[in-house]
Write a structure and sequence with these properties.
With 288 residues, the protein is of the alpha+beta class. It folds into two domains: 115 residues, Elongation Factor Tu (Ef-tu), domain 3; 163 residues, Threonyl-tRNA Synthetase, Chain A, domain 2, CATH 3.30.980.10. The chain is built from five helices and 16 strands. The chain has a six-stranded antiparallel β-barrel with strand order 2-3-8-6-5-9. A hairpin with an 8-residue loop joins β12 and β13. α1 crosses α5. The radius of gyration is 21 Å and the shape is elongated.
Length: 288
């Protein structure tokens, strides 16, 4: 079995160098595998954060990377990209890699064994990192704002509040300086003890509580970091944030800011126009 890709993005890297280990061509463009990369790939099972974009440089030529993606290669020779990956992460007989999807025809020198330089689009990465941290903070503030609506214990979130996020979230999409999360408010949630009627009647008040909590957390300038169990793309990573209530620890493969001082504001809007579906839109503004 080959070696999983070594990744440096958890430590904040946006540049690096490595050796090309494989180039696969397809109608959608070439996918280049490098042994070590600073690029964060979009996850194929929970594609909340888009993959990094940037460039690969070989000699005097540069190739634009449209997006970094997850790749799985089997011992039998299969090569699967993104949603086409047929097995669960960690499946026996498969190696997990980061692929760099190239726009257009790659340079002729971009072949197996070639040394390459790598550069991530920093503005895009920073915007996604702010969006991802803001998304986690908003979900924790949402849980806190809805804590009194539970008649049964749904389990606890990362800072000890009733875990509405874990129970109801059905999709999350990170974007630069923001996110959109959808929560299903169906019969199963009501059976779990959540008071959807009172929630709907007090929606504006809940939104106000969330935004006040987010402002209070930002004012602390709390540290934010990623801890990883190892250097490869398959090793688990967790987001840590030193909030006043507790240290929040959330299993997360994305990128994040290093401090809440990087925000001037985070705010959410709650939309319940479909009574079965809560849509929370989070918007972040970077500190000057």
């Amino acid at each position: 079995m080959s070696t999983p890709t070594i990744v440096t993005f958890p430590g904040g890297a946006v540049t690096g160098s490595g050796t090309v280990t494989r180039v696969e061509h397809s109608p959608e463009g070439a996918v280049v595998i490098v042994d070590t990369t600073p690029f964060h790939p979009v996850d194929h099972t929970w594609p909340d954060q888009p993959g990094d974009r940037g460039s690969l440089t070989v000699g005097a030529e540069s190739a634009p990377v449209a997006e970094a993606v997850m790749v799985a290669a089997s011992d039998e020779g299969a090569f699967a990209v993104g949603s086409d990956i047929p097995v669960k992460r960690g499946a026996e007989g498969w190696t997990w890699l980061v692929g760099h999807r190239i726009e257009g025809e790659p340079p002729a020198a971009l072949v197996e064994g070639a040394p390459v330089g790598m550069s991530v689009d920093v503005v895009h990465r920073d915007g996604l990192s702010r969006g991802h941290t803001a998304c986690h903070l908003a979900s924790l503030a949402l849980d806190l704002a809805l804590a009194d609506l539970w008649r049964k214990d749904p389990g606890q979130d990362a800072i000890g509040n009733p875990d509405f996020e874990g129970r109801a979230n059905q999709s999350s999409r990170i974007r630069e300086d923001g996110a959109v999360d959808e929560y299903r408010l169906g019969k199963s949630l009501r059976r779990a003890g959540f008071d959807t009627e009172t929630f709907a009647a007090t929606l504006a008040d809940r939104e106000e509580r969330i935004n006040a909590q987010l402002a209070a957390w930002i004012a602390t300038g709390a540290s934010s970091r990623i801890e990883t169990e190892g250097p490869t793309i398959v090793n688990k990573r967790r987001w840590h944030c030193e909030l006043p209530e507790a240290e929040a620890v959330i299993l997360c493969g994305g990128t994040h800011v290093t401090s809440l001082a990087e925000f001037s504001s985070i705010s959410v809007s709650l939309d319940l126009s479909d009574p079965q579906l809560l849509v929370m839109t989070t918007a972040a503004t970077a500190a000057v």
